[in-house]
Specification:
The complex is a heterodimer.
Chain A (H helix, E strand, L loop, with lengths): L4 E3 L2 E4 L5 E6 L6 E7 L6 E7 L2 E5 L6 E5 L5 E5 L8 E8 L7 E2 L3 E5 L1
Parallel strand pairs in A: 2-11
Antiparallel strand pairs in A: 1-3, 3-8, 4-5, 4-9, 5-6, 7-8, 9-10, 9-11
Chain B lengths: L3 E2 L5 E4 L4 E7 L6 E7 L6 E6 L3 E5 L2 E6 L4 E6 L8 E8 L5 E3 L3 E6 L1
Parallel strand pairs in B: 2-11
Antiparallel strand pairs in B: 1-3, 3-8, 4-5, 4-9, 6-7, 7-8, 9-10, 9-11
The chains are: A mainly beta, B mainly beta.
């Protein structure tokens, strides 16, 4: 069975640009969460979606937004990119919001 | 502030020894507890989950949870050089979000 897949794996953007990151959950999983991981730190929670509804939002500015589609895939959008947005963006899927979460390989975003 | 605390390490153990990784959390309503392993440049990989007080064993790994002390630990028996990685403790509170500690870097020396 395919695990969580994220695209793209690497991305370089310029300050002020917009980026869209995509995630396909494990088949049967209805919950998708997004995390940002800066080098040397643990992942920080950004959003959680379950059954296409937002179930949680972390302490991130409104430049960050996300949605979940009818097939349970998800995308994370970041507007007006800042240098500080450079990080590894992780998507995790689970059956339910509180159950075991499995991560994709991540998208490495570099803002220059 | 809901926090998860880990010693950043590095924790160095000889091959074949037991590695003991510790984690404390501040939110008393936390319900689910997870250990992830993360190799350099890779994404976190789930290795253990624990939901109730006591010990849970899976192969060479044992997770221990003490909700009264707000403490969760991971023991790795017969440590191998391939176990060298950063181990992340994650706690799921009633809000359903995972809060991660900063991770402990484990080095297993041959």
């Amino acid at each position: 069975d395919a695990g969580v897949t994220q695209s793209p794996t690497h991305l370089i953007k310029t300050r002020g640009q917009h980026v869209t990151l995509r995630c396909s959950p494990i088949s049967g999983h209805k919950s998708v969460s997004w995390y940002q991981q800066v080098l040397g730190q643990g992942p920080q929670f950004i959003f959680q979606y379950y059954e296409k509804e937002e179930r949680g939002r972390g302490n991130f500015p409104d430049r960050f937004s996300a949605r979940q589609f009818p097939n349970y895939s998800s995308e994370l959008n970041v507007n007006a990119l800042l240098l500080g947005d450079s990080a590894l963006y992780l998507c995790a899927s689970s059956f339910f919001p509180h159950t075991e979460a499995f991560f994709g390989q991540g998208t490495r975003l570099t803002v220059v | 502030q809901k926090e998860v605390e880990q010693n950043s390490g590095p924790l160095s153990v000889p091959e074949g020894a037991i590695a003991s990784l510790n984690c404390t959390y501040s939110d008393r309503v936390s319900q689910s507890f997870f250990w992830y392993r993360q190799y350099s440049g890779k994404s976190p990989e789930l290795i253990m989950s624990i939901y109730s007080n006591g010990d849970k064993e899976d192969g060479r790994f044992t997770a221990q949870l003490n909700k009264a002390s707000q403490y969760v630990s991971l023991l790795i028996r017969d440590s191998q050089p391939s176990d060298s990685a950063t181990y992340l403790c994650a706690v799921n509170n009633a809000g359903n979000m995972l809060t991660f500690g900063g991770g402990t870097r484990l080095m297993v020396k041959p």
